[in-house]
Amino acid sequence: MGGGGGLMIEILKQHTLLIAEDEADTLAEITQYFGQYFRLVFQAKNGKQALEVFEKEQIDVALLDISMPHINGLEVAKVIKKINKNTQIVILSAHNESPFLLKAIDIGLLTYVVKPLNRQKAKDLLIKMAQNFKQNHQIFINSSIAYNYDDKALILQGKDPINLSKNEVLLLEAMLTNKNQFLSVDKIIDIVYLDDKSRLNYTGCIKTLISTLKHKSPDLPIHNKYGLGYMLKI
Questions:
Q1: 224 DSSP β-pair partners
Q2: Dihedral angle computed from the Cα positions of residues 112, 116, 65 and 91, in that order, rounded to the nearest 10 degrees
Q3: Which residue, 54, 96, 184, 195, is most buried by CB atoms nearer than 10 A?
Q4: Sheet strand arrangement including 40-44
Q5: Given 3.40.50.2300, 3.40.1280.10, 3.40.720.10, 3.40.50.360, which CATH number is that of 5-136?
Q6: For the domain 140-232, what is the CATH code?
Q7: Are 34 and 62 in contact (CB under 8 A)?
Q8: Coil vs helix vs strand at 4
Q9: How would you write the pLDDT of the chain (234 residues) with one tens digit per residue?
């Protein structure tokens, strides 16, 4: 993917993609190419199917053909943006249709691409998607939970952002940095309570902190193993 490709791939591998395209060959070709870069790729053959998939799954990027049966790509984009304004949307069109393009700008799309989607256009699009995620500084923990580093908040599907306390942020960001690895209680104490050595029952404080995080987001995949500590499994 050119300069910085490794980082771009790493960013995109955390995210999911919905491709909605009514031409079977084009759908298969786009899916095969983009499937190399995304964690999961979902397909839809028309606008109605696209919305059904979006309602069931956590979709981070939607690649929508502008002309589809039942519901066109722009109408699908409008609905998606009403449900989740953070979803990146790309419209594909066989022509540079100016009236549609003006409407697309109002919706707040990431970009508008004229077909055919050749290799160079696809690479440019992937880089643009990854840069947008990097700019927003948001990481997906699982299909329904994301964490925004700038806002210091958990993003749950269909809900308002959940702000975290200073200690919750310190703990969660440490777990994200060391994802899929156990953090010992001593390590967590050093990270979270470095500036507060007055607390004696550190183990109890950590348990309370974990409990509070789990209360705010019950599906947060934090695992505990005696003698090893705590791990965020992604």
A1: 230
A2: -10
A3: 54
A4: 40-44, 16-20, 61-65, 88-93, 111-114
A5: 3.40.50.2300
A6: 1.10.10.10
A7: no
A8: coil
A9: 333 456 567 778 878 999 999 999 999 999 999 999 998 999 999 999 999 999 998 899 999 999 999 999 999 999 999 888 889 999 998 876 666 665 666 677 888 898 999 999 999 999 999 888 877 677 778 877 888 888 899 988 778 889 999 999 999 988 988 888 999 998 998 888 876 655 567 788 899 999 999 999 999 999 999 999 999 998
In this structure, what token pair is assigned to residue 100? 């549609």
pTM listed for this prediction: 0.60
Of 174, 189, 183, nearest to 230 (Cα)? 183
Torsion sign over Cα 36, 42, 45, 50? negative
Neighbours of 9 (CB within 10 A): 15
